[in-house]
Design goal:
Helices cover 17% and strands 29% of the residues. The chain is α+β, with helices and mostly antiparallel strands. It is globular, with a radius of gyration of 21 Å. The protein starts with a helix and ends in a 15-residue tail after the last strand.
């Protein structure tokens, strides 16, 4: 079964800490809202696809024991990228501008235990994104509706051992932006995404508190000063944020992403913010092998950062690039006919590294 396959993939990931997603939120003076993220998975190819789902499409969540869980019909069409299974949307945006993305939440996410006798209002965590994207257009609607469903994990084995789960970033084109974390066996915590950043564990409030350790960091160059009889000066640009953490742990990526978002210049147009988002997230690409203790276990992948996506919520544009092709691709939701009867599923790229030859013909 595909859900069982996903459980194996997630379980194998635990040993290698191979998932290290980083998300940022940007905006412009014209109130264009941008949600961007990377997705890292260094253990194997996620076989991600571009998914286009229509309106009035029927869904059902498959439970850990293969029973049918919550059923619903979509109100809105959406575009997203899947992971491991075409049904499992890691990140996406619907035609009303609502975005939803999942981020690995190892050791902290703790969902409600699955009850096989109560499935009508139950979905798995991997179905949560498409449930939101297909039905709601605002954060407020999501916050209200989540009170009426149960979210359970996929199980790793027949003994009911839950797989690692996620926390979620949800934002609408009115500028509302939240982080949903489910902990302590089903306790739902909703935080305003005031930092405009999301990575992985620990929990969001811890990450925000940790920013207090870095209030001395500022953009630019530190002024010179006299230290005893030494005239000390900066070697170059960036001395004011010397000490910005550069490792790939979630807390360090959170701080680094928050710093870059905070130092972003004022932007007028959505296109400017989209470009800025890609440039910021380039700092979070993880070369394959850097997160493995044993080089014998390094898989045959070009990068641990399998894809990067940027969503212009205001203008209905979905951009992405992949580990095999750094060319930025665009999907314009305004040009999509969401009245189809089936989901469209396409490969993200051709599977080959793309290089443009610009050698002059002299």
């Amino acid at each position: 079964m595909k859900i069982k396959l996903l459980s194996v993939l997630i379980a194998s990931c635990v040993a290698y800490s191979a998932s290290a997603c980083t998300g940022i939120s940007l905006s412009t003076v014209n109130h264009d809202y941008i949600q961007a993220r990377t997705i890292e998975w260094g253990q194997n190819d996620l076989n991600s696809k571009l998914i286009v789902s229509p309106r009035d499409y029927s869904y059902v969540s498959t439970m850990p024991d293969q029973k049918q869980g919550l059923k619903w019909d979509s109100k809105y069409g959406f575009v997203g990228i899947s992971v491991s299974d075409d049904r499992f949307i890691a990140d996406g945006v619907n035609e009303e501008g609502l975005t939803a993305g999942l981020f690995y939440f190892k050791n902290y996410g703790s969902l409600e235990k699955y009850n096989p006798n109560d499935t009508k209002t139950t979905i798995t965590d991997m179905d949560f994104n498409r449930w939101m994207l297909s039905q709601f257009k605002t954060v407020a609607e999501v916050e209200q509706a989540i009170k009426h469903i149960k979210i359970v994990p996929v199980y790793i084995d027949a003994k009911g051992v839950p797989s690692p789960t996620a926390h979620w970033r949800v934002a609408d084109k009115q500028g509302n932006n939240i982080v949903i974390e489910i902990m302590n066996n089903g306790e739902v915590n909703i935080h305003k995404n005031v930092a405009k950043v999301l990575t992985n564990a620990p929990d969001y409030q811890w990450q925000v508190t940790n920013l207090n350790n870095y209030i001395h960091l500022t953009p630019g160059v530190s002024p010179g000063q006299k230290i005893n009889d030494v005239d000390a000066f900066s070697f170059g640009v960036g001395s004011s944020f010397l000490g910005l953490p550069g490792d790939i742990t979630p807390p360090s990526r959170f701080v680094r992403a928050a710093f870059y978002v905070n130092s972003t210049p004022v932007m007028k147009e959505g296109a400017d913010a989209v470009s800025q988002a890609f440039h910021i997230l380039n700092n979070f690409d993880i070369p394959i092998g850097s997160e493995f203790n044993d080089k014998a276990h390094i898989p045959d992948l070009p990068s641990a950062t399998q894809w990067t996506s940027v969503v212009d919520q205001t203008n209905g544009l979905f951009f992405y690039k992949t580990m095999r092709d750094s060319t930025i691709k665009k999907v314009d939701l305004n040009k999509i006919n969401f009245t189809g009867k089936v989901e469209e599923k396409r490969l993200l790229d051709s599977g080959t590294f793309h290089v443009q030859d610009v050698t002059p013909d002299i």
